[in-house]
Amino acid sequence: MKRPETNMDNRVENNPGIATKELTLSMGPQHPATHGVLKLVLDLDGETVVKCTPHVGYLHRGVEKLAEHRSYLQIIPLTDRLDYISSVANNIGYCVAVEKLFSLKVPERAEYIRAITGEMARILNHLLWLATHALDIGAMTVFLYCFREREKLLDLFERLCGARLTVSYPRIGGVKNDVDHKWLKDLYRFTEEFPMRIEQYETLIDQNRIWLRRTKGVGVISAEEAINWGLSGPTLRGSGVSYDVRKYMPYGIYDKVKWKVPTGKNGDVYDRYRVRMEEFRQSNSIIRQCIKKIPEGPIMADAPKFTLPPKDKVLTDIEHLIHQFVLITKGPQTAPKGEIYVSTEVPKGELGFYIVSDGTGRPYRMKIRTPSFVHISALPRLCEGNMVADVIANIGSIDIVLGECDR
Amino acid sequence: MKPLEIADKIKEKFPLEVLDVTSFRDQVSVTVKKDRIISICKYLYEDTDIRMDYLSDLCGVDYPERRFRFEAVYNLYSLKHKHGIRIKALIPGKDPSIDSVVQIWRGANWYEREASDMFGIIFNGHPDLRRILMPEDWEGYPLRKDYPLKGPENREYEGYEKIKELHTHDDEWGIK
């Protein structure tokens, strides 16, 4: 893209005495608009970005190496810390992968609860995304409005499992706690008022002239290019590709509820914003359908070789105690040998777990394919040739979390 | 197309390259030699019936006991036909290098950097093969099986000493 000519250019051209040179600007790692510890080294020509080099790894904790030394059950809390904004979605992604490896069938009630919490995580994530993205671009008010609804959902999570952020709620073969009638009723009440709240956010920014100027036609990426870069989630769908893992490779109960995959057309920051706003409505509708349809029944699979025994039995019965001890410390001793790659749709995109099992209670190798890692790798493609202020809009629109990128 | 059919097509096209085809939980892995990995990937990408346009994941795996110590694993998916396959290229431990596939999928750029950072696999033809998650002056390859979980014993990361040196004048300048 060619840079628009400015007054400065004329002054420089008409005045041979003024020397110009490229400026190298280090943005981050402690920059509020980088959503974590991301460092961008920008080569600037005036206000135009000539070259953008992302530096990541500040939050590298070696989750993949740690996982090789943990039993399958002990890895669940590690996955919380990948994308800490929508931790339950990561837990579900990991559990779905391990269940496929073990060939476990999860009871239907647990699947419904997973879908409900997974979509709650999507709303939570998009609320935080909207709040911070709008704040970056200059719309301050949206931030507080979003956090009002976020608080309500976090309270519901607290009532469900005791934790608000890093929940570690799903288990291999099911979920930890059952939901009660009151909880479902309160969540349903939330979904009744939430569509009205979405409209509120939209009235704040959707017709806002500053918002439109900052987002329309910025950071454009074509569908073909987005696929080639490996983008996923709303970032890919903004370019008009309807790739959603929940539709393409359905897991859980996503093929039993009615919902649409919203897509954009132009592949710019504005379309990615529109896709996420529509996803609010779709997630809200999925939660409502799930609450209506949720069946009674068990919440853990009946597979004693892989799932923990009930807690009351563990406290009173020696066999169950031994069983629990072995599963926790050594992991399932009858894990099959093989390797699988299973992906799920987390709020930010496609989260994939590639697990190599050698038959011991621990994974031989676990690679986590995180959407943020791929999205940051495409950031130079979005930023180069554009203005430096658009870098902030681009970072916001690809929705990244560095805990997930660096693992 | 069923994954096994794709595997058969690869076998037909590259009979000398394919070493093994395994199937586990409806997922098919094709083990190949590393030398013609670009031709194989290009074929999978360009063939209209297969058209693997989406590189889901690329990673390394370390098997210290095997003759070919490393594996580069390509998880491919086709958004057009909704099918996927896994390609595994064997890499010897003595000369851990393989051709880069960045020219086919640009998303492979950072995956390959990560595999090189974590396993020491060199991707020939990669545009920018610096370390990515570890510091640039880090020694060793953390995800290799012979690398201890807590890092090398009795040795602190040298970069930390440099940071401490940077702060030696803090008192003079009144920085707290």
Name the descriptors.
heterodimer; A: 407 residues; alpha+beta; three-stranded antiparallel sheet; 18 helices; 13% strand; B: 176 residues; alpha/beta; five-stranded mixed sheet; two-stranded parallel sheet; 5 helices; 7 strands; 27% strand; elongated
Protein architecture, described:
- The complex is a heterodimer of chains A (407) and B (176).
- Chain A is α+β, with helices and mostly antiparallel strands and 407 residues long.
- Helices cover 50% and strands 13% of the residues of chain A.
- In chain A, the strands form 3 sheets. Chain A has a 3-stranded antiparallel β-sheet. In chain A, strands 6-7-8 form a 3-stranded antiparallel β-sheet. A two-stranded antiparallel sheet of chain A has the order 4-5.
- The longest helix of chain A has 30 residues, at 108-137.
- Chain A is globular.
- The two termini of chain A are 34 Å apart.
- The model of chain A has no long low-confidence stretch (mean pLDDT 87).
- In chain B, 26% of the residues lie in helices and 27% in strands.
- In chain B, strands 1-2-5-4-3 form a 5-stranded mixed β-sheet.
- Classes of the chains: A alpha+beta (407), B alpha/beta (176).
- Chain A binds chain B through residues 56-57, 60, 62, 64-66, 69, 100-101, 103, 227-231, 241, 243, 248, 338-341, 343, 350, 352, 354, 356, 364-365, 367, 369, 373-374, 376-378, 381, 406-407, and chain B through 24-25, 27, 29, 53-57, 59, 61-62, 73, 75, 79, 82, 86, 105-110, 114, 118, 131-135, 142-143, 147, 149.
